[in-house]
Design brief:
Elements lengths: L11 H4 L11 E6 L3 H14 L4 E4 L6 H6 L7 E4 L5 H12 L4 E4 L7 H14 L2 E5 L9 E2 L4 E2 L1 H5 L6 E11 L10 E9 L7 E6 L10
Parallel strand pairs: 1-5, 1-8, 2-3, 2-4, 4-5
Antiparallel strand pairs: 6-7, 8-9, 9-10
Length: 215
Amino acid sequence: MPAVRAPLPVACALSSLFADGGLPRGRTVACTGDAALSAALALSAAATRAGSWLAVVGVPQLGVGAALESGVAIERLVLAQPPTTSREWVTTVAALVEGFEVLVVAPPASLTEHDARRLQSRIVARQSVLVVVHVPVPPSVVVGSGVGHRTGSGASRVFSADLDVHANTESWSGIERGGSHITQRTVHLRVGGRRAPLSREATLDWSCLNDQPVS
């Protein structure tokens, strides 16, 4: 096993949710809930501002603008859309692990548990952080996997997560009375999982995270 390095930094408002005060290296973090993608970006943002590179793989609905709003240093961001066949997707992610400290991925339905374990072994060896986002797939889109059928969300679960981050939106502000610009979003976060000694929760004003100092 490689020597464990210091965790990757997160905004101070998020640090209390993690036993180590940041994202533990060599671990897999699963993000679920309606704010899963926003949570994945928020967790990655401080690391990019501190010099880490972020790769986002297989998340077509993510744009540079959304990453910028989440506080990601976009000069250290790479977006990749590999083919969704398991072999090509795995090859792409495995190559990115060699050069990126944080990877946010939405796995294709074709991904097998064997390939997921291989990628996680690389994450451990490189002391990177893998953030797996559960992106819902319409019910009409179902792909055979050789072990039954599953949706995109089910494909995400082939990874054995060390930490589970559940993020749900509690309220929006700025859209009432005909307003067209969202000024505030309140999100409830719960962090638990097999590598968490206890479950931790917080309700945060998402619009203020970018202004938070790095822990």
